[in-house]
Write a structure and sequence with these properties.
heterotrimer, A alpha/beta (338), B mainly alpha (261), C mainly alpha (272), A: 338 residues, alpha/beta, Rossmann fold, Alpha-Beta Plaits, six-stranded mixed beta sheet, 11 helices, 13 strands, 28% strand, globular, C: 272 residues, mainly alpha, 76% helix, binds adenosine-5'-diphosphate, binds magnesium ion
Chain lengths: 338, 261, 272
C-alpha cells in the first residue's frame, strides 16, 4: 500500500472581497461580501514508501495548503488523504507521531532559548527514550553540523543555521514521513547543498518518505524521483523528471570544444529545415535546437563535417527551462481565456 | 496523567529560563500588577471615606471579596495566560500550525507553554488582603477546607471563559476583543451583586458568571448563608462552563484555516 | 496645504481600512469599555444611596453620572495606541521602512490613527454623545446642556488627544529596556487611569494629592476636558487650564523629538 494516498483533495477558502480605497472600506464595513476561493482543486496522487516527491508550482499555487492538509493542520473541504494508514484529521495525535514537518518560513524552535533546549523539550513531547535521543542527536549533528551553534539562543542563529536546526527538530523522533515546505528558501548555495545532502541521506538510510515543496529547481533535480506540479490549485503534471523532459523537453543543447576557436565562424546550419541557435565563448560552441524537429545525430554529423572538434557533450534539457515553458504556456492560455 | 505533570514541569522550567533572559521584564510585570492592585485599593478607600457601608457591606468585607477574587485570577494568569495569544496572534498569523503537528493535545500544549510570573503580583496582593481581613470571617475547619476547594473551581471559570472566547479566533481570526469584553465583566464581580440592576445581576450570575468567581463564594465565607447557591452554584457553573468551552475549542480546531504563507 | 494633505491621505485611508477589516473587533472593544462605565455607574449609585449627603465633594449624583460617561467617552476619544509600537520598531530596525519615506516619522502613525479615529468616532458619537445630551435634557436634576461648555470640551479634548499621542510615543521607547510590553503598559495605564481622574474625580483625593495631580500632565488628558464640559471652571480657570494643556503638549512634542534623535543615533550605530 502506498505511504501517502490522496484522493480528490479540495480546499476552499472564504475570502472577503472589497473594492479598493475608501468607498470599498465603507462598503465592507456595512455589508461585507464573501467569495469562495479554491486554493486546492481535486488533487489525487499516491506516494510509495521511500520516495521523494517534489511538489512544485508558482507562488500561490496551493503547495503549502496541500501540505497543511496532509499534515492535519487544515481540514479538507472535500476529498481525503490517508498517510501511513491514518487519516490525519481523524487520528491527529497518533498520526503526527510518525511525521516530521518543516515550514521554511516559520520556526518551531523556542526563540529565546539555546537550541539544545528545544531538542530536550521535543524529546519529552515526542516521548523519545533517553538512549535513543542521544543516538539520534549524534546522527543529526553529524549530517547537519549542529554542534557549532547548539548552545546559542535560537534568535541569534543565521537563517541557514536555523533551517538546519528546524530540520533536525523535525527528525528527532524518527518520522516515517517528512514534509518540507520550502526548506531551502533564502539560503545561500553552500547551505542549500548541505541541506540537500542531509535530506538525501535521511531518505537513503531510513527509507523516509519525503514530500518537498520548493521553488528551487536544483532541489528537484538533485533530490526528487518524481515531480508533482500544480498551478492555481490544479494538477498540471505528475511523473518522473525523465517523463517531464520527454513530454515537454524539446529544447536540447550540444556543446563542442573546437580545436581552433576561429572555426566557430565557419559553422553553418542553414541547410537544416529548423533554426539552430549558436553561442560561442572561447573554444566552446553551444548549439541549441528543438530535438523533435532535428535529431542530435544529425547535428553532430553536420558539425563534424564542417569543423575539427576536440570534445563533445550532449546536455539534457534543463528542467528550469521546461518549467518556465509550461508556465508560459499556461499563462498564455489563461490570458486567451479571460 | 504522569506525562501531563512531567510536560508541565518541563515547560515551566523552559519558561523560567526564558524569563531570566529578561530580568527587567519580570520586575516591571510584577510591579505593574502590584501598583494596579494597590491603586484599586486606594479607590475603595476613597469610596469608603464618603460612606460607612456600601449597601450593607463594610470596607473590610469588600476587601476580603477583593482578595479572594485575586487568588484564582492570579492562578489562571500564572498558568494559562497563553490563551490570550491564541486570540490575538497565534491563529491570525498561522502560528497555531505548530500545535497541530505535535502528538500532544493542542489545548494542553497551548496552556502549558507559558508561565506568567507577573501573576505573582496578584497572588501576593491577594494573600496579603486575605490575611489583613481574615478577622471578618468566622473560620471553622470545614470552611477552611471549602475555601481551599473552591479555588480550583473558580480558576476553572476564568480559564474556561478564556478558552471559549479565544477559540472564537478560529472563525474570526482575532478574538482578543471578545476575551477583553468578557474580562470587563470581571470588574462587576468584585462588588456586592445587590448594587446592580436585575439585567446585570442576571448576566454576571448565569451568562458570564463572574459573580461566582468572587462575590458569591466570598459572601458565603463572610455570612455563612446560602451554601447551596453560593458554593454549589460555583461547582455546577464551573463544570458546565468548562464543558461548553472545550467543545467550542474542539469545533474551532476543525475550522482552523491557518494563514497564507 | 493641499499637497500636504495629499501626501498623508494614503495613511488616513490605510487607517480607515484597517479599522474596517477588524470592525467586529473594535465594536466589541467599545462594548467592553461601556461595560466598565456601567460598573462605575452602579458603584457610584450605591455610594450616593448609602451616603447621607446629596452631594459629595461638589458632585451631585446627576453630575457624577455625567462625569462617569463623559470620562469614558473622552477616554475613547483621546485614546492613542498607534505609536505604541514605535519603540519596538526602532529596536528591531523595522522602522527603516518607515523613515525611508520622505515624511515626518510621527506623521506616519498620526495620520493612520486619524483614519482609525474617523471610524471609531463615527460609530461612537451618536449613541454615546447623544445619550449624554439626552440624559441632560431628560434626566431629573441633570445639569442643562451648555453649548459653550461643549465647544470648550471638544477643544480641550483634542489637545488632550494630541498630548496622549506624543506621550505614548515617548513611552514606547521603553521598549529599549523591556520586552514585556504587557507589564510596562499595565504600569503606565494604572498610573494614567488613576492620575487623570478616570477612576475617580480628582476632587475626591486629599488636598495634597489633588494639587500634585493637577499639575502633572495626566489631568490634562481627561480631567480638564470633562470638568470643562461640566462647567466646573471659572473663565480664568478655563484659560489657565488650556494653557497648561498646551504647555504639556509642547513639552511632549519636544521630548519625543529629543528621544527620537538619540534613538536614531543608536540605530545607526547598532546597525538596527
Ligand atoms: N488561510 C488562508 N485563507 C485564505 N486564503 C488562503 C489561506 N491560505 C492560503 N490561501 C490562498 O490560497 C492560495 C494558495 O496558497 P498557498 O498554498 O500558500 O500557495 P503556495 O504555497 O503554493 O505559494 C493563495 O492564493 C493564498 O492566498
Ligand atoms: Mg507556500
Amino acid at each position: 500500500m502506498a505511504m501517502i494516498e490522496v484522493s480528490h483533495l479540495q480546499k476552499n477558502f472564504k475570502k472577503t472581497t472589497k473594492a479598493p480605497g475608501l468607498i470599498g472600506a465603507f462598503q465592507s464595513l456595512i455589508h461585507p461580501q464573501y467569495q469562495t476561493f479554491e486554493a486546492v482543486k481535486d488533487l489525487s496522487f499516491e506516494v510509495p514508501q521511500g520516495e521523494i516527491l517534489g511538489f512544485i508550482g508558482a507562488n500561490g499555487a496551493g503547495k503549502s495548503t496541500t501540505i497543511k492538509m496532509l499534515t492535519g493542520i487544515l481540514a479538507p473541504t472535500s476529498g481525503f488523504c490517508r498517510i501511513n494508514g491514518k487519516i490525519p484529521q481523524e487520528d491527529r495525535k497518533n498520526y503526527v507521531k510518525d511525521i516530521g514537518v518543516v515550514f521554511g518560513q516559520r520556526t518551531q524552535l523556542w526563540w529565546d532559548l539555546p537550541l539544545q533546549e528545544t531538542y530536550s523539550v521535543l524529546k519529552e513531547i515526542y516521548d523519545v527514550p533517553e538512549k535513543e535521543f542521544h543516538k539520534r542527536m549524534d546522527f543529526l549533528n553529524e549530517i547537519l553540523d549542529l554542534n557549532e551553534f547548539i548552545t546559542s539562543p535560537v534568535r541569534t542563529l543565521s537563517l541557514g543555521q536555523r533551517m538546519r536546526a528546524d530540520i533536525a527538530a523535525s527528525l528527532l523522533h524518527n518520522p516515517k514521513v517528512l514534509f518540507l515546505d520550502e526548506p531551502t528558501i533564502g539560503l545561500d548555495v553552500s547551505v542549500k547543498d548541505n541541506i540537500r545532502k542531509a535530506i538525501a541521506q535521511i531518505n537513503h538510510e531510513e527509507k523516509t518518505t519525503i514530500v518537498l515543496t520548493t521553488h528551487d529547481l536544483d532541489d528537484i533535480e538533485l533530490l526528487c524521483n518524481r515531480i508533482f506540479m500544480i498551478d492555481r490549485g490544479s494538477e498540471v503534471f505528475d511523473g518522473t523528471i525523465k517523463e517531464l523532459k520527454g513530454q515537454f523537453g524539446r529544447i536540447r543543447e550540444v556543446e563542442f570544444e573546437l580545436v581552433d576557436s576561429n572555426d566557430g565562424a565557419k559553422l553553418d546550419y542553414s541547410t537544416l529545415p529548423v533554426p539552430v541557435e549558436i553561442r560561442q565563448t572561447g573554444n566552446t560552441v553551444v548549439a541549441k535546437f528543438d530535438d523533435s524537429l532535428v535529431s542530435v545525430p544529425n547535428i553532430l554529423k553536420l558539425t563534424l563535417a564542417q569543423v575539427e572538434v576536440k570534445d563533445i557533450s550532449v546536455k539534457d534539457a534543463d528542467i528550469e527551462e521546461i518549467v518556465r515553458q509550461i508556465f508560459r504556456k499556461e499563462a498564455q492560455e489563461h490570458e486567451q481565456l479571460s | 496523567m504522569k506525562r501531563v505533570f512531567r510536560l508541565e514541569k518541563i515547560f515551566i522550567a523552559q519558561y523560567l529560563k526564558q524569563t531570566m533572559e529578561y530580568k527587567a521584564d519580570f520586575f516591571v510585570g510584577v510591579f505593574g500588577v502590584l501598583l494596579n492592585q494597590g491603586l484599586n485599593l486606594v479607590f475603595l478607600k476613597i469610596i469608603f471615606s464618603q460612606i460607612p457601608k456600601l449597601d450593607g457591606w463594610s470596607l473590610q468585607q469588600i476587601i476580603f471579596i477583593y482578595g479572594f477574587a485575586l487568588i484564582p485570577k492570579g492562578l489562571d494568569h500564572l498558568f494559562f495566560d497563553n490563551l490570550w495569544a491564541v486570540g490575538q496572534r497565534l491563529v491570525r498569523k498561522g502560528e497555531f500550525d505548530k500545535y497541530l503537528t505535535r502528538p500532544v493535545n493542542p489545548l494542553f500544549h497551548v496552556l502549558v507553554e507559558t508561565f506568567q510570573v507577573d501573576a505573582f503580583g496578584e497572588l501576593l496582593v491577594g494573600v496579603i488582603l486575605l490575611v489583613m481581613t481574615t478577622g471578618t470571617v468566622h473560620w471553622t475547619w470545614v470552611k477552611l477546607l471549602l475555601f481551599i476547594l473552591s479555588i480550583p473551581f473558580v480558576t476553572s471559570i476564568y480559564t474556561s471563559l478564556k478558552i471559549g472566547t479565544s477559540a472564537m479566533a478560529f472563525w474570526m481570526k482575532k478574538s482578543g476583543a471578545i476575551s477583553y469584553l468578557f474580562y470587563m465583566f470581571n470588574d462587576f464581580a468584585r462588588y456586592p451583586v445587590s448594587i446592580f440592576n436585575n439585567v446585570v445581576r442576571w448576566i454576571i450570575s448565569f451568562i458570564i458568571p463572574f459573580a461566582f468567581t468572587a462575590f458569591y463564594p466570598a459572601s458565603y465565607f463572610l455570612t455563612d448563608k446560602n451554601i447551596v447557591f453560593n458554593l454549589g452554584g460555583l461547582v455546577v457553573i464551573s463544570i458546565v462552563l468548562l464543558f461548553i468551552s472545550i467543545s467550542i475549542w474542539n469545533k474551532g480546531i476543525s475550522a482552523y484555516e491557518s494563514a497564507g504563507s | 496645504m493641499s499637497s500636504y494633505l495629499r501626501r498623508y491621505r494614503p495613511f488616513i485611508v490605510a487607517g480607515i481600512e484597517e479599522a474596517t477589516v477588524y470592525r467586529s473587533n473594535f465594536i466589541i472593544y467599545l462594548l467592553g469599555n461601556t461595560l466598565g462605565a456601567f460598573v462605575t455607574y452602579f458603584l457610584w449609585k450605591a455610594v450616593f444611596t448609602s451616603s447621607a449627603n446629596s452631594s459629595l465633594n461638589g458632585f451631585t449624583f446627576p453630575e457624577m453620572v455625567l462625569y462617569i460617561f463623559l470620562s469614558f467617552f473622552t477616554g475613547v476619544l483621546t485614546s492613542s495606541d498607534s505609536s505604541t509600537s514605535v519603540g519596538d520598531e526602532v529596536k528591531d530596525g523595522s522602522i527603516a521602512m518607515r523613515i525611508l519615506k520622505p515624511i515626518n516619522f510621527a506623521a506616519n502613525y498620526f495620520y493612520e490613527e486619524i483614519g482609525n479615529k474617523i471610524i471609531n468616532l463615527g460609530l461612537l458619537m451618536l449613541p454615546f454623545f447623544g445619550g449624554i445630551v439626552a440624559y441632560q435634557i431628560l434626566g431629573q436634576n441633570a445639569p442643562a446642556v451648555n453649548w459653550i461648555n461643549i465647544l470648550l470640551y471638544f477643544i480641550s479634548a483634542i489637545i488632550a488627544y494630541l498630548i496622549n499621542f506624543y506621550f505614548n510615543l515617548c513611552f514606547s521607547f521603553t521598549a529599549f529596556f523591556f520586552r514585556n510590553l504587557w507589564g510596562s503598559n499595565l504600569l503606565k495605564n494604572a498610573l494614567v487611569v488613576f492620575m487623570s481622574g478616570t477612576l475617580v474625580p480628582l476632587a475626591f483625593f486629599p488636598a495634597v494629592l489633588q494639587n500634585i495631580f493637577k499639575f502633572l500632565p495626566f489631568s490634562s488628558l481627561l480631567y480638564t476636558p470633562v470638568m470643562m464640559y461640566l462647567g466646573k471652571y471659572s473663565p480664568k480657570m478655563i484659560v489657565s487650564m488650556l494653557f497648561l494643556q498646551i504647555f504639556w503638549l509642547v513639552f511632549f512634542i519636544v521630548l519625543s523629538k529629543i528621544i527620537w534623535y538619540f534613538a536614531i543615533k543608536h540605530l545607526s550605530i547598532q546597525g538596527g
